[in-house]
Amino acid sequence: MAAVTHEVDAWNSFLNTSLQEDDKEIYDLIQKEKYRQFSGLELIASENFTSLAVMEANGSPLTNKYSEGLPGARYYGGNEYIDQVENLCRKRALQAFRLSSEEWGVNVQPYSGSTANFCALTALLQPRDRLMGLDLPSGGHLTHGWQTSKKRISSSSIYFESMPYQSNPETGYIDYDKLEENANLFRPKLIICGASAYPRDFDYPRLRKIADQHGAYLLADIAHISGLVAAREANNPFELCDVVTTTTHKTLRGPRAGLIFFRKKKESDLENRVNNAVFPSNQGGPHNNTIAAIAVALKQVATPEFVNYAKQVRANAKALGEALLNYGYKLVTGGTDNHLILWDLKPLKLTGSKVEKICDMVNITLNKNSVLGDVNMVSPGGVRIGTPALTSRSFKEDDFVKVAEYLHRVVQIAIKVQEKAGSKMMKDFVVACQDVEEISALKKEVEAFATSYPMPGFDPTNISPVES
Ligand SMILES: *Cc1c(COP(=O)(O)O)cnc(C)c1O
């Protein structure tokens, strides 16, 4: 190979400078974020810690390449390796879910889960066609048709007519009878199943039957549970659904992106409709660095280690749920079959926002979530807690019993602070949090606990704690 004989010109002087030297501000913020991830208890059910290998691929020079189109049919030259990357990714995506390439195809280009869903709708529906998805307050996702009585919020309700189905307010389980009844009136062209905050699994045979009564498509959005599905730790949506979408960064533990699987034999042109919906209808150039990183993640997903990971995610959620029930707390549906629990705080006269607030102050991250019977969408009555991220940090059942104890203490503090605040207003609550001894004590304890566990993807031991 010829040596590089030319000088770097002055206008290019920083193109080979490390981030640390080139941009100290961003570098420092990344260091702080790394320490935050390391020193806290990450319980947000949609998050995970991806691997070093995934991040290497994601941060690679593949980001430089334009490759609109599909492998073998690109709008740009120079794609011989990019084609191989995308083909490998597609092959691994089918393998990870044990799908034959005769029956299923996959598009690996969606930038994220929401875009994957809109692409799927574009492929399956005409504008103003009717769809039914699980209502947001029942645990569904925005992109499944969310609208309020005042406003169409999601593009899935702006460009299509949507009618939600819901969970039963008594049991917390999806009310399939009501769905069937309403589908008879609404006559949807598409039923979407899948959720972001539902602690139980889906009845695909029942959903298929309802869809068939109207000749409707059945789409499963397995964004949250795709890692469990791949490991056979959840019901298999591929047996009965026409299209399956997912994110790749939740239980699948890859980079931030989306996938669309489509049943090839459903209709002869479904493959083309899905591929065209991604590009050119909704996206431009694929993010090749991300596609490479998805491929890396999917290779990991196909290992026995990943199956054990998925089993542990569920065992941990079960242990956490049982520990909280032992304290006398109320969980939606009374427990969990998957990676998350929904904690109903209404019996404690607390809101999700207040518990989330105290958690934030003691290095525990989770999110407020609406639970059944909430009237006020701005101030939901529960929190959502997931185990995928901490299981990637090698937490087991006993460790989650400890997490439950921390959460119990958070709730006890929140009750005390609310009394001290003298009102139910959030701003009074925040003021009353100041100088509460138990908060600073618990923060210290949580930090010491969290930093005793390994951290995937990067070495946190050389990062100095952030001064607060
Ligand atoms: C997270 C999620 C999405 C959206 O994913 P983004 O990558 O955030 O756009 C879609 N559907 C469900 C069910 C989700 O949980």
UniProtKB/TrEMBL annotation:
GO terms for biological process: glycine biosynthetic process from serine; methylation; tetrahydrofolate interconversion. Keywords: Methyltransferase, One-carbon metabolism, Pyridoxal phosphate, Transferase. The keyword Methyltransferase applies. Its EC number is 2.1.2.1. InterPro entries: PyrdxlP-dep_Trfase, PyrdxlP-dep_Trfase_major, PyrdxlP-dep_Trfase_small, Ser_HO-MeTrfase, Ser_HO-MeTrfase-like, Ser_HO-MeTrfase_PLP_BS, SHMT-like_dom. It comes from Gigaspora rosea. The lineage of its organism: Eukaryota, Fungi, Fungi incertae sedis, Mucoromycota, Glomeromycotina. It comes from the Eukaryota. This is Serine hydroxymethyltransferase. Residues 19-407 form the Serine hydroxymethyltransferase-like domain.
